[in-house]
Every structure is written in C-alpha cells, then in structure tokens.
Design a protein that fits this description.
Blueprint lengths: L11 H10 L3 E7 L10 E10 L2 E8 L8
Parallel strand pairs: 1-3
Antiparallel strand pairs: 2-3
Length: 69
C-alpha cells in the first residue's frame, strides 16, 4: 500500500513541494464559493489519488473575514 501525502490545510505551494518530494505530480483544482471572497491564500482541502504517482489537489481561497480565520 502506498503512502499518500497528508497535505490538508497546507498552502498550495507547500503542498506541491511536499507531494513532489514524495514522488507525486499533481494537478490543481480550484473551487470557489457562489459569492466572491477577497481571499488571497490558497489552502488544500483534498488530495485525490488519480494514478500511481499522480494526484489532484483541491484548493480553496482562505476567507479571513467573518469567522474565516
């Protein structure tokens, strides 16, 4: 069984570096809420294994207003 990268909550840059260090290439999928937010930082909310050494990172903009951090 292969070891998957544990990158939930990482910034997108840190997550990519961590995945590459473990031998994975990754695609990035950005999701957005219906209403626009002013976030600038992307955070990883999911890692999905696509094939043996390839994954998909789902990332969202970090909301720092109204309880977002």
């Amino acid at each position: 069984m292969c070891q998957l990268p544990d990158v939930i909550g990482f910034s997108v840059g840190d997550a990519i570096e961590h995945c590459q260090a473990m031998g994975y290439t990754v695609n990035i999928l950005v999701t957005r809420p219906v209403k626009e937010i002013s976030g600038e930082k992307l955070r990883v909310v999911r890692f999905k294994l696509v094939s043996k050494n390839k994954g998909e990172l789902t990332v969202v903009y970090e909301d720092t207003k109204k309880g977002g951090g």
